[in-house]
Amino acid sequence: MTEGHNAPAFRLPRDGGGVATLSDYAGRKLVLFFYPRADTPGCTREAIDFTRLADAFAEAGAAVLGISADPVKAQEKFRDKHKLGVPLISDEQHEMLEAYGAWGEKSMYGKTFLGILRTTVLIGANGKIARIWRNVRVEGHADDVLAAARSLL
């Protein structure tokens, strides 16, 4: 997946019931932030930052979705505990994570394993990948993504 290419389609369960699909957001800008695990410190901060800026993203014509491999129930518990205001998608089979390049090799304490790579993708209203942030550092990230969404026509 690279900038300028069509965004991969997805259809996955989301918090609150129902499913989320790429086509639900046709004609709108869409921010996808992929986070490793619900209710961990970095992921919580990132989700809270995107929630804090939800109205500003809406004013910029962009929807925001958070995606992890956590089951829907864990996503809902995370949402409720931190009063999150962005939809959370569950990708337990890693289909969307792999399609968007957010699943791969990680290392911690000298061990290598497969897991979610903190990644954010901005999709333009035309359905094409406008920008990809890899190996995201949480501090200030949501603000950077908002600036990019605002500058995108």
From TrEMBL:
Q: Which UniProt keywords apply?
A: Antioxidant, Disulfide bond, Oxidoreductase, Peroxidase, Redox-active center
Q: Identify the residues that the record assigns to the Thioredoxin domain, covering every copy.
A: 1-153
Q: What is its EC number?
A: 1.11.1.24
Mention one GO molecular function.
thioredoxin peroxidase activity
Question: What Gene3D superfamilies is this protein classified in?
Answer: Glutaredoxin (3.40.30.10)
Recorded catalytic activity of this chain's protein:
a hydroperoxide + [thioredoxin]-dithiol = an alcohol + [thioredoxin]-disulfide + H2O
BP-aspect Gene Ontology terms: cell redox homeostasis; cellular response to oxidative stress
User: Which positions are catalytic residues?
Assistant: 43 (cysteine sulfenic acid (-soh) intermediate)
Superkingdom to which the source organism belongs: Bacteria
Key word Disulfide bond present? yes
Any single GO CC term annotated in Swiss-Prot or TrEMBL for this entry: cytoplasm
SUPFAM superfamilies this protein is in? Thioredoxin-like
EC primary class = oxidoreductase
What is its biological role?
Thiol-specific peroxidase that catalyzes the reduction of hydrogen peroxide and organic hydroperoxides to water and alcohols, respectively. Plays a role in cell protection against oxidative stress by detoxifying peroxides and as sensor of hydrogen peroxide-mediated signaling events.
User: Subunit comment for this entry?
Assistant: Monomer.
What protein family does this chain belong to?
Belongs to the peroxiredoxin family. BCP/PrxQ subfamily.
- The entry's protein name is thioredoxin-dependent peroxiredoxin
